[in-house]
Amino acid sequence: MEMTETKPGLVPGQKCVVAVEDLAFGGEGVARVGEFVVFVPFVLVGETVEIEVTEVKKRFARARLVRVVEPSLERVKPECRYFGECGGCQYQHMEYAAQLRLKRKQVRDIFERIGGFKNPPVSPVVPCPQPYGYRNRIMVRSQWDKFKRSLNIGFIRYDNRLVVDIEECAIASPELNRQLQEARLHPPLKGGIKVLLRQQPENWDVPPQSFFQNNFLLMPQLAETVRDCLRQSGARFLVDAYCGVGFFSLELAGQVESFVGVEYDQQAVQAARRNAAMRACTNGGFMVGLTEDYLESLLERFPHEATSVVLDPPRRGCGGKVIERLRQAGVRQVIYVSCHPATLARDLNIMCADGVYGLVKAVPLDMFPQTQHVECVADMMWNGSDTSGRAGR
């Protein structure tokens, strides 16, 4: 997106009427005053809106929505009374089908711009069967409100670091909303304390601080998407990097002769072993350690031409060390699972450089309805020739 450096005399507090041209990744609308770009939250493409400028930078400005003059046909009434204040959701004002189309477009745009892929093979977004009441984990914060003379317990506002006092969360599960009421009845002794609310999954052992997918409803489809990639590759061995409590290892164990998972969180590894025992799964195991340190030795256990590697790293993505070792090893397949399309695209760009790996497909799954976030499964196959569809440098 081209942004001019010429300020049109905008100042904070100024109001004007603009047309929304696009939605940037993150959910902000893109409008212009003259040729100067202004970012506005909670709007939709094609709308005419009145805005109030809140911040003016050298190349762009930010504004708040005052009122919608001409609404989009895709605009709907948000189900949450805190939407527009709370920073947890960005898309409750957009009908769900439109959210799915937008997220696919945004993933494609990021793959093209950051990943360097021409016409990236991004599938339609897999919808969540229940776009509200799906989250099984939330972190609420406490903050002293000097005007109310009491604690606010809830989420950070979209436009500053103040906490919005929340009695219920529309995207959280009923169990989490019950826990939220308990937290409000028994608040922390002072502000600044975070409270983790979590619903335990059935048939999985998950320590309180260990990672697990936050959407139980779409979890089976996520596992099936990765399983389908593995099935089509014909790989007989699996290395599960950043394996957590063993979700992908154990969901895929029946597809391979042997597997191994590696995870830095020692409690998660202990839980993974208990999860394996619970399922009488005996064709693999788990080890404690950094993927960066142990990947090379783990890859030596299996023939590379018959091995698939699943990567499910934190939001920051994989380190260059991990990607380079995979490229050098030339394993048959790499399946990369990510909740951050930008870091995913960055890592795929490196992985597919010089045609060492080709991007077969990327499948987005809407694990986070009503928000800017989207999960992606990227399937890469080793091929040794430039069939990846990457743009020339």
Question: Care to describe what's here?
Answer:
- This protein has about 400 residues and is α/β, with parallel strands linked by helices.
- The protein folds into three domains: about 55 residues, Beta Barrel (OB fold (Dihydrolipoamide Acetyltransferase, E2P)), CATH 2.40.50.140; about 200 residues, Rossmann fold, CATH 3.40.50.150; about 60 residues, OB fold (Dihydrolipoamide Acetyltransferase, E2P), CATH 2.40.50.1070.
- About 25% of the residues lie in helices and about 25% in strands.
- The protein contains eight helices and 16 strands.
- The longest helix has 18 residues.
- The radius of gyration is 23 Å and the shape is globular.
Summary, kept brief:
This protein has helices at residues 96-113, 174-185, 219-233, 247-252, 266-278, 291-299, 320-329, 341-351, and strands spanning 15-23, 29-33, 36-40, 48-56, 60-70, 137-145, 150-156, 163-165, 194-198, 237-241, 258-263, 284-288, 307-311, 333-338, 357-365, 375-382. With 393 residues, it is an alpha/beta fold. The chain folds into three domains: 15-70, OB fold (Dihydrolipoamide Acetyltransferase, E2P); 100-128 and 211-382, Vaccinia Virus protein VP39 (Rossmann fold), CATH 3.40.50.150; 137-198, OB fold (Dihydrolipoamide Acetyltransferase, E2P), CATH 2.40.50.1070.
